[in-house]
């Protein structure tokens, strides 16, 4: 019974804390709109705008912030109490990161060695690492030099520093991606919504040149243009590289990059909480056992 | 005669305070929060010591050293998540402990010093938790530190000087981070000392009990009765803790704190940790800078002087029907203030926040003194009628 109670408790906690707090019609409305393929959605800017405006009134303040559409729960493979990452997706996501995102975004907390046994085999990762030039040094002459990357290196970022990144991107700084799913409200849902959410700005919304409209981005005007187009890269495993497929894969990869301990954590949690439940049951028994003389004591008054 | 450990000067203290200590039999599970709070403090100190071995209190490295702990230190993520979520658990336990005291009248004579020592621990905890939140040097750390230290600038004439003295410079900067780390490491030991004082004051008069009626005979020893009872509560706490720790480790954190501190970019909303939200709501509900700070400080000072505001001679709320209404209203008012604290500053939240703040003060300044007198008068009236 205790186990049942705690499972129920954990389940309700999960319900409480999952991102689907938006039980209103608004969420359902967005869901319907969101699952229209992005290519087909381009012409629906007005509908989207109208929905945003409509649900802001109907759905109440909790759903819509003034300046952007909150992402919804897409039901990720790894979003269950006992669910692990979808590793083929993580591997494909790394490919998307490497071929698309890495031209502007760094992944500064991730080492090549972290990929071993997760996305690739050790041999594969060594080859990937060698394809990068890493600055090392100084050598015996006091000079910095470049050498092929090793497993122990961090994945090199595209820019030397923040200023260089800004200079190359019209003043906008492409944020580091290694913590991005932890560092944004909505996390992995937000990443997917953002990558697939580029549409024409609604009428009356002025977007400065150099910026792009994305309803999921706070303020709506984002410096990054739409990056993922259908068929833009070729997956090794033959998965059709649609925009939503690539977005899903790269979002899963970034979720892994932010929380590499995720799978082990959940597994350890089940074991540890299981052990605690046993301890709780035993202690409960022991408590009743020790207290039973007191609980069964009877005071008898004779008048 | 052989040596008897329970008569020895040192081990005898152990015996008389946690083994043979006479405890009222009718304590319910609400009395478990004291011991679990002590264990929370222990968990925080232990994990903190290990975190400090890998943490680097320097602006350029603080954020990276946290990520280093999370990724490269063996089980570093576990230690850090225990420490981060442990702070929340500590506050859940301590808030429950405080409301237990409010409900069962544990603040009343002869436990007034005991209650006040507890409020001092609570204030020390808030200071420690605040400084701990600054250490990861994320956006919310930096801006939280800026907002909270700036509260002192409202003090007339010397405010600015005090703030710069706290910062060790002209903005929240490297010296600020350094001293916060130093104090964050030191204060828990002060809290531990205060907790020993708290325990000594408790054992001086003995525990209150759900009926609030003193009786000196017929008590039971702490071990094994309350040892097992507290152990059971501890496992419940650890299970709740572990659910957060293993399945929702960042649910009580703010996403902005995974963005490195940037003095040039202000986050859209600066929110403190959840356990400060009720007091933060009180701060924001007063439309005057100094007034807000005074109200927030006053909200805690009221807790401190509560034994002297009280007029009731009946401790337990079981026997105080009017106070019971006021108490539960305060309880939900406090939760409501917490909810208000994390909303943006806009209607209707500001308006509702003002009402909730007014009730908080109304409870302590009017209801507590008034209901004590009123209830006694009504009882006398009722008795005379018979």
From TrEMBL, chain A:
GO biological process: one example: mitochondrial electron transport, ubiquinol to cytochrome c
Subcellular location: Mitochondrion inner membrane
Pfam families: Cytochrom_C1
Claim: Transmembrane is one of the keywords in the record: yes
UniProt entry tagged with the keyword Methyltransferase: no
Binding site for heme c: 101, 104-105, 224
Superkingdom of this protein's organism: Eukaryota
Name of the protein described by the UniProt record: Cytochrome c1 heme protein
Species, as recorded: Nannochloropsis gaditana
Automatic annotation (TrEMBL), chain B:
Transmembrane stretches, start-end: 29-56, 77-98, 113-135, 142-163, 183-205, 226-248, 290-310, 322-340, 352-374
GO BP term (any one): mitochondrial electron transport, ubiquinol to cytochrome c
Keywords: Electron transport, Heme, Iron, Membrane, Metal-binding, Mitochondrion, Mitochondrion inner membrane, Respiratory chain, Thylakoid, Transmembrane, Transmembrane helix, Transport
Entry-linked InterPro entries: Cyt_b/b6_C, Cyt_b/b6_C_sf, Cyt_b/b6_N, Cytb/b6-like_sf, Cytochrome_b, Cytochrome_b_C_euk/bac, Cytochrome_b_N_euk/bac, Di-haem_cyt_TM
Residues that coordinate or bind a ubiquinone: 203
SUPFAM superfamilies: a domain/subunit of cytochrome bc1 complex (Ubiquinol-cytochrome c reductase) (SSF81648), Transmembrane di-heme cytochromes (SSF81342)
Binding residues annotated for heme b b566, in chain numbering: 97, 198
Main location per the UniProt record: mitochondrion
CDD domains: cytochrome_b_C, Cytochrome_b_N
Any one GO cellular component localisation term in the record: mitochondrial inner membrane
GO MF entries: metal ion binding; oxidoreductase activity; quinol-cytochrome-c reductase activity
Cytochrome b/b6 C-terminal region profile domain: residues covered: 212-382
Residues binding heme b b562, per UniProt: 83, 184
Function summary: Component of the ubiquinol-cytochrome c reductase complex (complex III or cytochrome b-c1 complex) that is part of the mitochondrial respiratory chain. The b-c1 complex mediates electron transfer from ubiquinol to cytochrome c. Contributes to the generation of a proton gradient across the mitochondrial membrane that is then used for ATP synthesis.
Name by which UniProt lists this protein: Cytochrome b
Species in which this protein is naturally found: Nannochloropsis gaditana
Underlying gene: cob
């Amino acid at each position: 019974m205790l186990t049942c109670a705690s499972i129920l408790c954990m389940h309700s906690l999960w319900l409480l804390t999952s991102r689907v707090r938006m039980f209103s019609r608004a969420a359902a409305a967005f869901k319907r709109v969101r699952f229209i393929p992005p290519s087909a959605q381009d012409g629906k800017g007005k509908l989207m705008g109208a929905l945003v405006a409509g649900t802001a009134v109907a759905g109440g303040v909790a759903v819509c912030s003034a300046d952007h559409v909150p992402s919804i729960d897409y039901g990720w493979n790894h979003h269950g109490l006992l669910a692990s990452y979808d590793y083929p997706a993580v591997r494909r996501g790394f490919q998307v990161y490497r071929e698309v995102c890495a031209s502007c975004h760094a992944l500064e907390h991730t080492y090549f060695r972290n990929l071993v046994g997760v996305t690739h085999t050790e041999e594969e990762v060594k080859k990937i690492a060698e394809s990068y030039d890493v600055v090392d040094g100084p050598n015996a002459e006091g000079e910095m030099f470049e050498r092929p990357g090793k497993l122990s290196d961090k994945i090199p970022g595209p820019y030397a520093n923040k200023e260089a990144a800004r200079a190359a991107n019209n003043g906008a700084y492409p944020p580091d991606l290694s913590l991005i799913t932890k560092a944004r409200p909505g996390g992995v849902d937000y990443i997917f919504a953002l990558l697939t959410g580029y549409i024409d700005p609604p009428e009356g919304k002025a977007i400065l040149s150099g910026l792009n409209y994305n309803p999921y981005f706070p303020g709506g005007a984002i410096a990054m243009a739409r990056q993922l187009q259908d068929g833009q890269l070729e997956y090794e495993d033959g998965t059709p590289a649609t925009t939503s497929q690539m977005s899903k894969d790269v979002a899963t990869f970034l979720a892994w990059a932010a929380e590499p301990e995720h799978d082990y954590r959940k597994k350890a949690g089940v074991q540890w909480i299981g052990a605690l439940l046993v301890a709780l049951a035993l202690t409960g028994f022991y408590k009743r056992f020790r207290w039973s003389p007191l609980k069964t004591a009877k005071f008898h008054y004779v008048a | 005669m052989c040596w008897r450990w329970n008569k020895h000067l040192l081990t005898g203290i152990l015996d008389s305070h946690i083994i043979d200590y006479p405890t009222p039999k009718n304590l319910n599970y609400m009395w478990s929060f004291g011991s679990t709070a002590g264990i929370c403090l222990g968990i925080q100190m232990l994990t903190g010591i290990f975190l400090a071995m890998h943490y680097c209190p320097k602006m350029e490295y603080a954020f990276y050293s946290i990520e280093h702990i999370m990724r490269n230190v063996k089980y570093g993520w576990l230690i850090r998540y225990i420490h981060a979520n442990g702070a929340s658990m500590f506050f859940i336990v301590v808030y429950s402990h405080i409301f237990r005291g409010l409900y069962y009248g544990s603040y009343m004579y002869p436990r007034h010093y005991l209650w006040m020592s507890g409020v001092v621990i609570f204030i020390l905890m808030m200071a420690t938790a605040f400084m701990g939140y600054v250490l990861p040097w994320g956006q919310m750390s930096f801006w939280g530190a800026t907002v909270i230290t700036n509260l002192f600038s409202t003090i007339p004439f010397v405010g600015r000087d005090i703030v710069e003295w706290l910062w060790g410079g002209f903005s929240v900067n490297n010296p600020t981070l350094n001293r916060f780390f130093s104090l964050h490491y030191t204060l828990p030991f002060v809290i531990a000392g205060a907790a020993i004082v708290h325990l000594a004051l408790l054992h001086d008069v003995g525990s209150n009990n759900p009926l609030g009626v003193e009786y000196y005979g017929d008590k039971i020893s702490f071990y094994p009765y309350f040892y097992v009872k507290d152990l059971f509560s501890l496992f419940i706490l650890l299970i709740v803790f572990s659910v957060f720790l293993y399945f929702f480790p960042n649910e009580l954190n703010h996403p902005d704190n995974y963005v490195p501190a940037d003095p040039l970019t202000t986050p859209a909303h600066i929110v403190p940790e959840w356990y400060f939200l009720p007091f933060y709501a009180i701060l924001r509900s007063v439309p005057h800078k100094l007034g807000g700070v005074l109200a927030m400080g006053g909200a805690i000072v009221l807790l401190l002087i509560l034994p002297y505001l009280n007029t009731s001679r009946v401790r337990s709320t079981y026997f105080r029907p009017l106070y019971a209404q006021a108490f539960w209203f305060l309880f939900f008012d406090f939760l409501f203030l917490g909810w208000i604290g994390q909303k943006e500053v806009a209607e209707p939240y500001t308006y509702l926040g003002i009402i909730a703040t007014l009730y908080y003060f109304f409870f302590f300044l009017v209801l507590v003194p008034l209901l004590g007198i009123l209830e006694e008068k009504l009882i006398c009236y009722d008795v005379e009628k018979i």
